[in-house]
Structures are given as structure tokens and as C-alpha cells.
User: Fold these one by one.
Assistant:
Number 1:
Amino acid sequence: MPATVAGALAARAAGRRLRPWTVVWAVGGAALLAVPVMSDAGWPTFLAVVASLGLTGYALHGGRGWPSMLFAPLGLFDSMVTGVVWAGRGVRERADASQGRWWPVLRTILIAVGLLVVFGALFAGADAAFSDLLGSLIPDVSLAQSPWRALCFLLGLFGAAAVARTAAAPLRWDRLSFGAGKARGRMEWALPLVVLNLLFAAFNTIQLTVLFGGYDKVLRETGLSYAEYARQGFWQLLMATLLTLGVIGLALRWAPRGGARDQRLVRAVLGTLCVLTLVVVASALRRMDLYVDAYGLTRLRISVATMEIWLGVAILLIMAAEIWGARLLPRALAASAAGFVLAFGLIQPDAVIAQQNVDRYVRLHKIDVDYLSGLSADAVPALDRLPGDLRSCALWHIEERLSEDDDTWYSTSLAETRARDILAAHGSGRSGVPCDEPSREDEYDPYAP
């Protein structure tokens, strides 16, 4: 909040106007900060905070081209040093010009703080309820935490100064120019891509006949079990999707630009490659679905599946840009990535993982309790559905961690509060239950004959 106020005041003083995309980036960055409020899991929170910083860079710097989308988030960190120097110089100039005004203000603030401390301490000693209220509102200032809190304060101060400095004088990244690549001849450009399209078409034909043909077809064609076939190849397909985006980018850079005929050729060849790549994306997601059905959902599996879905969306945006123009493509890709990070955090992936594994246990009576016990408090509502000892083994690690964590309002989340309520009502139920039995999930194939 101090950084937002500082940036708004600095931009206003510098005469900058509020533009629609600035509002989009600012609102998106604030929305991403809802993830740590809602969720206890650290990994989606980290992604959300990093994405929020990126959108903050977009809001402060402006711009719409590839240089701005790539480098604007980095400019915010560059201002961490220059912003402090800039803020210090401004404070010193204003202090010299208004020495007779700032000292009365500072003196008034010090008197007010002193009165609050003295009378607050007296009232806290007079009433236990009021003392508890103050204890929940005031952060712990123990010596053990003081260095860490001082570091956080300095980071916040430098961050606010960096935001204000960037808002007042942003770097215009779009002034960086990248010349178009040398246009290639039609045959030289198109032949490698046509060969690649044929390879994609052959692979996709086999995928459509084998992967969607049922277990008997898979076993007959490959000699593998359904679960083994599902596990095989997902990472290769993910890498193929990523490489295809690079191939499309280079192909556009070196595409022939002789006129309407060349434009139709580029759209036909690259459009075909994009469509075939979407089939590869669907195949990879189908493999992951089969793998999850066989072995359960994990953090890694839900993360890479989400990334694969976003890659499919990115390809669709590239196809749309070829039809309606590429002016908005950099912003659209950045906005879609931030949207996926926000949605990923708000669905609480740990809760989804727990829910899927509990549902799978209901169907197949197989579950990796040791893995589930390492999830965050987001998973507690789903794990609470498990019966007896399984529930105890899944929850006792989470309950132990929650009992050690600070539960004050400024250091907790809604998921932690909900988990504490559930555990307070039912408890973990652990009473000497052995929970260190090794899991044998990888030996289990639900589709074996």
C-alpha cells in the first residue's frame, strides 16, 4: 500500500496520465496478491508474488512491444538503488525549504506515539481482553526476530522508493529496436517447415489411433501397460511444444515478405504447424490424465499440466495474431500468463491434489498418505474425508506445523484459519498410529488385466 500511494503521487507530480492498460496491469497485480491471503501453500504464493511484481513493472513503465514485455519487470529492480538516492535528494531539498514546518509535524507525531504507548500499556494491564486484542494487532518485536523485521522494513522502504522513482521517470523500453531478420526465399523458408508439419501429422495420426483407442489397442501396439504408456513421453511432448513456439518465432523473423502471395504462404504453413501443435498439446494432456488416474495427482504433475494448457492458449493467441494483427500479441501473452498464475493460485492446487487423491482412494482403495501429509493447510478439508487411521496419518504433520506457526491476522491465511477450525473440531485423531509405512504406488497399475 505505501508503494502504491508513492507511485500514484509520483506519477501525478510528473504529469503522467492514467491509461487503460496501466489500470489492467495494476488491478491484475493487486489481484495476484489475493493468493497469499487465500492459500497456505508457499509455491503458488511465490509464483503469484513474482507475477505481481512483473505486472507492477508493466504498469509503471508502460509500453506495448516485446522489449517492454521482456524488460519492464527488470527496470523495477534497477530503481531499487537509484530510487533511494532520488528520494533522499528530494527529501533533503524539501527539508531545506521548509525547516519551520516539518519539525512541528514530527514533534506532533512523536507526542501522539508516546501517548499511545503509555496509555495502551496501562489499559492492557487493566483488562485482559484488551491486552489480548493489542497482542493480536501488534507484531512481535522479540530480539530474535528484530534483524529479519528490520530487513523487511528496509526492503519495503527501498521498494516504495523504487516504485515512486519508476512512476516519475519510467524507462521507455519500446525505444529499443530489433530489426527484422533477413527475408528468405520461399523454398528455403517453407521446405523445412513443411517437412516438420509432415512429421507432426504422422505423430498425431498415431496418437489419435493409439492413445484414444482403448487399453487393448495400446497393449497390442506398444506392448506396454496403460499406465506405463501414459507415463512415457509427456516430458518429450512438453518440450516439443516449447520448441515449436521458438520455431514459430524464428520462422516469422525470416519469413518471405514479397507481397500478398508470401503472406498467404506464411499463414498456411505456420497455421498448419499451430493446429498440429495443438493436437500435440491435447495428446500430452491426455497422457497426463491417464498417468494421474493411475498414480494420483502431485504438485509437479498439476504444475506441468497447467503449463501445457497455457502453451496451448499461447498458440491460439499466435494464430489469432496472424489473422487480426500482432499489435496486441505481447500484451495478450503477458496477460494470459498472469491470468493462469492467478487462477492456479486461487484454485489452491494442494486442495485439488488432496481432493483428487481422496476420490481416487474411494474408487481404487490406493493412496500415498506419506505424500499427502506433506501438503499445506489447503488440503485439510479434503483430507478430513479420509477414514480412521488414514485421516490421522494424513493430518498429523499438518496439525503439528500449524501448532508451531504464528496465527495472528497479519501472518496467516484463510486456508490456515479453516484448517485450524476443522482440526479444533475433530482433531487429527493420531494416537500412536504407525504412519511411516513406505508407499508402493509405482507397483500398482489399475488397468492391468
Number 2:
Amino acid sequence: MSTRTVIRGGLVITASDELHADVLIEDGRIAALATSGTTVAEGWTAERVIDATGKYVIPGGVDAHTHMEMPFGGTKAADTFETGTRAAAWGGTTTIVDFAIQSVGGALREGLDAWHAKAEGNCAIDYGFHMIVSDVNENTLKEMDLLVQEGVTSFKQFMAYPGVFYSDDGQILRAMQRAADNGGLIMMHAENGIAIDVLVEQALARGETDPRYHGEVRKALLEAEATHRAIKLAQVAGAPLYVVHVSAMEAVAEIARARDEGLPVFGETCPQYLFLSTDNLAEPDFEGAKYVCSTPLRPKEHQAKLWQGLRTNDLQVVSTDHCPFCFVGQKELGRGDFSKIPNGMPGVENRMDLLHQGVVDGHISRRRWIEIACASPARMFGLYPKKGTIAPGADADVVIYDPHAEQTVSAETHHMNVDYSAYEGKRLTGRVETVLSRGELVITEREYTGHAGHGVYTPRSTSQYLN
């Protein structure tokens, strides 16, 4: 039996509202909200009372793009489901949607079962799965229907990584046609991998081996071209499309154009593209390897266009694409050949704070912060209003957030299982103080009080932007 909790005196912020209200939590759910100081609110009694005076009371974050324990390039992501979800909680995220991987020649079900086995009993917060489709065939297409029925309602395909996850246009079209029929959502890694591989080969032949060349060969135009092609294939199939980790202004323009035409096309970006740039990839002594991810970091001028896309709703979601590889022993696999650096960066713990810094810096409003970090990802992937808001009936995934606390981001103090921070030394205003997941305290005044196994698997409905 869970403890009855009242959160008093805070400013409750959701995607639609800001109000000074007390929040009553019973049986793991939000039971009621009432204006602070009123007879109704004063009348509530509870075993646990949390004072949120001067603080924000916000929904727990929903990170719809993580890769815990993901195998890549002969190694695997450094965070387990246990360490990764604990770090997520420290950063105010209370739900992740990770990616189960179909092996080429294998069934979707085998991949999904393998990821369930990794996660079950190990997560500090709730979790769901998308399915990476690496091998489109008649059996795969039938399995997609079954997975949608049981709550795995989104499928990721890759126009990049030939020989690993790559799907050609015909395979993509078939999967999109199936999604159009079964209500699923295709998520697309939009980069022209075939062309990029040519540029990689040519760069290495010229002796261009440093990390910065990773960004130079993965050209923004090849992200834009693939984004355009994915949009047209989705249009032919009559299917919705969600473009993951959009990094380039040219790709944003393709998505904006499609949305202006009324097409069900959606875009996600990540904090690394909003705060980091090719300057980081060019850091000396192989330090740039820390910032190798795909899509790659872009020149600084792209940042303003990404923030603009978030303000105008041409981009709807900010996820992390959290896929951490340690600098020592993992990123170092690519010394002398940038193409062998494992692609991925840590970030699941930093997203809510970095986006709050976007509020402080005037890029977005407080409500938009909650929209792109909590409500929109929950709606996009069939978790709303169970997740992503503070309203009667919603899961009591609640964060007490101190908007005035100052912090300096560092690998010395973060909780991700990785030996560097992509934001080392960055000063931020705002910090998570207390986190509840389904009414249970996971972070209590900057102390971890959660445990592995609290987090449960959460099946999802189809995208609520399409219903």
C-alpha cells in the first residue's frame, strides 16, 4: 500500500498551465489538485508532506530515445538498465522508451524478448520499448501487427549504417505501408548511409582520421536528402513519420515544409545539438571522440534554427539518444580511424536541466519546456495522460524542481556509468531536488532512495497525435 502524499506550496507547471496548487497523491496516482491555501487544500491529511514553496512541481520527464546496454561496433553502451534508469531519475526523468533490436535473420520477437530480459527487475523508473526493424520480410511485417496490439507501437528504421541496421527504400516503403494499416509509427534515422560510406572511405584514404572528420563526412545535406526521401516514402505509403535526432537546419526545413502541407510528419532533436557543435568534435588530442554521435554535431549556426523549430512546433520532442561509451577503452577504439569510434553520447541525466537552461536563456517558455520534455513525448508514443502531466488519474511521476539552484555539470558528480561528461564544466541554473515515480520517492532532497525493480514495463497505445 503506497503512502498518501501531499506536495504543498509549489508552482505546478504542465504543458498547458501554471498554477500555485497543492497536489494530493494516493495509490501511486495524482488524486487531486487544489489552489494552495484554500480550505480544500488545507483539509488534506497525509503521512508524507513535501514542502515545495519557491519550487516548481513538474511532471516527470519522458525520454523517448535511449539505448541502454546497446551493442555497437564491437562494444556496448556503458549504462545498464539499472545504472541508466537511476541516472535518469537523478535528472528528473521518470520514464524512458528504449530500443529493442531485431538481428538480421532473426524475428522481432527474439529481439524484444532479449531486451525485456535485460530490463526486467533492473529499472529504477518505468520503461517501454520501440522496435528496431533491421530485416523487413513477410514474417517481420506480420510481427509488426502483433507488436502494435501488445503495446510496442513504434518501429525504427535506418537509412544509415549499411551492413548493420540499414534498410533500403523498398524495405522502408513496405514497413511504412504496414504501419499505415496497423496504426504504428515509423521512426527514421535519416542520413544517406550509402553516400556517407563513400565519403568516409575517401577521407580515410586522404589520411583524414581525426574525430572531426566524422562530422565532415556526415554532411548536413545528406541528412536533409534522407529526411526528404523518408517524407516522400511516408507520403506514398500514407503513413506518419517521426524523424529522430534532427541536427541540421536543412533537415528542419524539410520537416517544416511537410508539416505546412498538412502531412503527419514529426521531428525530434536532442540537447547535444542545441548546446554543442563541431567545435567540440575538433577538440585536440582525440578529445573530440567524446562527441562522436550520429547524426553528428553541426556548426553553431544550426543551434538557433533548432531552437526556433522547437518554438514553432516544427520540432515537437527533445530526447537524449543516450548511448554512452567510455572514453577510455571504448571511444579509443577509433584512434587512427574516426569511423571506428563508437557512435553515441551520454545525456539521460542532463536533459531536463539543459532544457531548463533554455528557459533561463530565453529560448523557450516554461510550459514549452514541459511540453517538449514530458507531454509531447508521452502523447507521441501513446503514454499520455498516464505519463507527461500532473492531472487527476495520471501516474504520480512528479519532480520538485528548484529553478534557482546553481550547478556545474561534471563527470565527477553525475550518475551515468561513463567516464566523461559531454557538458563538463557547464554552469546551469535549476536542479532536480525530489523525484517521485508512481508516488514512491526515488530521489529525496538530492539523495537516491529508489531501487532497481521499482520501474515497470509500460505498454503503449498508438500515437495520440494520429488518433
Number 3:
Amino acid sequence: MKIVLASSEAIPFAKTGGLADVASALSKALAEAGHEVSLFMPYYPQSTTKRGLNPDDFEVCPEKVNVAVGSKDIEAGLRKASFPDSNVTVYLVDQPRYFDRPELYHENGRDYQDNCERFIFFSRSVLEFADKLDLNPDIIHANDWQTGLIPALLKIEYQDRPGFEKTASVFTIHNMAFQGQYWHWDMLLTGIDWKYFNRHQMEFFGQLNLLKTGIVFSDMITTVSPTYAKEIRTERFGYGLHGVLDTHADRLVGILNGVDPTEWNPEIDSNIAANYNAQTVAQGKPLCKAALQERMGLPQKPEVPLLGTISRMTDQKGFSMILDAAENLLATDVQLVFLGTGDPYHEASFTDLAKRFPDKVATYIGFDESLAHQIEAGLDIFLMPSQFEPCGLNQMYSLIYGTVPLVHEVGGLADSVVDASEENLENGTANGFSFWHFDATVLYRQMRRAVEMYSDKPTWNQIQHTGMTKDWSWKQSAQNYLSVYQRASGFRANNTESVSASH
């Protein structure tokens, strides 16, 4: 198949969250399976430089296109890059007025005021360049609200153009909380007829909603775990769009993300103190734990359970609960490590916790990729009590590294972590700890339970081994996406007439 992926971020070029990991890893896995893959993303020169890449390494393409954004006609340039050891072609859409900024979406806690315009421009650019480069895609796979306009443009304007006659669209929701909602006059920027601004298609409580647009116009909709696909059809997790998703449920599929084994693999990870696998974890992991304790300024105590997390420090990630539970847990013999940035209150609280318990708590405010790997390898227990979690990747990284995850049973956490209940230990499926009731007291009890089980080495080794021996790579996930692409192509073939406005 000829596949075009469109994403607002992808590693190593730019990243704010899991979307960047998924866009790159899925592209690579699809190419490895023998498909022709092109990945489009904006060219953010400041982000690229910050991430240690040299913009001069990207080939400047001769092709340019003019993109209509409302009444403006704006030129888009193109740069070409690639991933090491992969056939994926990465196209970076170049327009300094939109993308040459210190951050991707916001600065100092405030969204860029022209975000709607920026990503309308990007969405149109993807289709124009796909045309200009004669990519003739079978599938255009759009991701999140930033590319939610692509399925609509494909259905309304492009589906009869030469090169797009067979193109089907797939739209992936990575997080329902971010919907790209803008005032109704921004509809003019899309260049799409006002008749589509109705409650069945692009309008949502009087506003333009780009996530809803992607859902309604795509041939197939996916999200990043089977449980999350069910959750977003409920009022609690649907953020007002649960009814829309219910209407389109026959086209909605949940596919659990995979892990890129070239990035996250304790056998070959150059960031960690000792390499190990499921057979040598008992020898390698203690060395990684000692190195982490040393780096974070904690006493090197091999028998003391080391718990921690790498995360955005927000209530959604459970940080208020972690703080409450940690205060109680620190009365016992444990150590805690935290890495992340987020709400100023949480940053200050966890910094203060480290000052009050210097021999037991270490906090690093910021992000450090190498330290993230060292934490995954050095911890005994990884805390991930998210209020909601569409997929989550850190619990899978933890499983691969023999670090036992403790999670709130939602979304992808429910799909990847099997609680160490008596029954699950007996049948050999237990790989972590999970709880349902989102409450600090419940979290504290689970942390105590995990700490107590840590001292039972045979059981602990069994839990570690179960997590480490499962295949968490993208291979299976990519196959599931290919099945969705086939369904989308079938849906497109059976619905060739132009889309009409719903009233």
C-alpha cells in the first residue's frame, strides 16, 4: 500500500507527547512490513535545533505549493529527512510564519492565537504536496485535531482529483481532551462551504471543532487502545463527543500502541549502567538501580524498594494522589524518584518533598531523555495512577525493563497491565498492580501491597518475567492498522459519491 501519515509531531524532530513516538514508530513498522510510507509533519526549526539535530542535514526540496487559508494565499516549502535504518520518507512542511516558534502549540501556558490557521495550513499542505509529488496514496492517516481537517478536505474537495480517486482516510484520536475548538468565524479559514458547519459535521456548540471534523469525515476511526475506544463513547471520557462517536461506532477501532524496540530495549540501551534481558535481569537491574540512586543523590540501598515516575506533573496524571500517598508511604523504608514538569504547584510540592526527605526522595524538574531511560531501568515499581490514559507508553517501557507498573485501571493501562491477584499469579498472567477506584487511600494501599510483594523474591521475579517476555513491539499493532486500512479502502470504494452536508 501507499500510505501517507500526517502528524503535528514525530521523534526525533519534535515532541510534546506520545503522538510523536507513535507517528514515528508506526511509520517505521509499516515500512518494515513492505509498504511505501511518507510521513508529513511541520518543520519547526527551533524545536529541531533544541533536539540536537542539524537543519542543514535536511534536503530542501524544489517543490513548493500555494495554500489557500481563507482569503490568503501562502506558499509552503518542503524539506526531506529520514529515519536511520528505515525506508520512510519524512516530509517537513516549511513555513516560518507558522512554525518557526519557540514551542509547538503554546508559550508560557497560553496557546498560540493562530493555532487554527496554522494547522488548517498544514492540513491543506499535506494534500497539495501529496498531489504535487504524485504520491497517489491508498491511505491518508491523520492524527488528532491538528490534522482533523484532512479527512473533510479529502471527501469534499480532493476525492475526485487525479491521484486521489482511491484514497481512503483513517483518523486516529490520541486524546479526546484536546479537540481543536475555535470560534465559528474560523470556518472561513478552512475554505470549506458553510453548509458543512452543522451539528452533524463540523459544528460543536456554536464552535468549529476539528477533532469532530476528523471523526465525522474519515472512512475509519481508530484510537490508541481497545478500552479507550469503549470509554470515549461514555459521558465520563467522551468530552461531549460521546454521542458523535456512538453514531460512528461501526467505524471505530481501538489498537494498543506498541513500543519501538530500537529506542526502548534494556538489551541494547546505551543510556543505562548495565544491559540485560529477561534471563539476566537479576544481574543487570541491580546495577542500574545503584547507578540511578547515585545519580539522584540517594543512598545506595539494594534491598529498599525504589518507586517513581516520569510524567507531566498534573492532576490528570494522578500527582495530587501520589503526593498524598507518598507522605504516608515515607513512614516506611522506601525511596522515591520523580522526573517531569507541569503544574507549578506540583513542581514545588515534589521539590519540597525531596528537600524534606533527602535520603528518601529525589525530584528532577525538567526533561532528560537519558535520565528517563535510567529511571525505567533503575526503578523497582513504576507509578502511573492516571485519571484517564488513552494508551500510555511508560507502563509498557516499564514492563520491558522489568520495572513493575502500578496503574489506575483505565484506557491502555487496563489493556496492558494485569493485576497481581492470587488468581492471575496462579495462571501466570500477572505483570503489575492495578486499581479501579481513583482515590489517594486506594493508591496508598496498592503501593503498600506492591512494596510488601517486592520482598517475596520468587513472586516478584515471576511478575517481572511475565512483563518482559511479552512482545510489546509495533509489529502486531502495525498489522492491526493494516487491517483498518483495508476496511477504510473498502468503505471508500462503496461510498464513492461526494459527501453532502447533513442537516
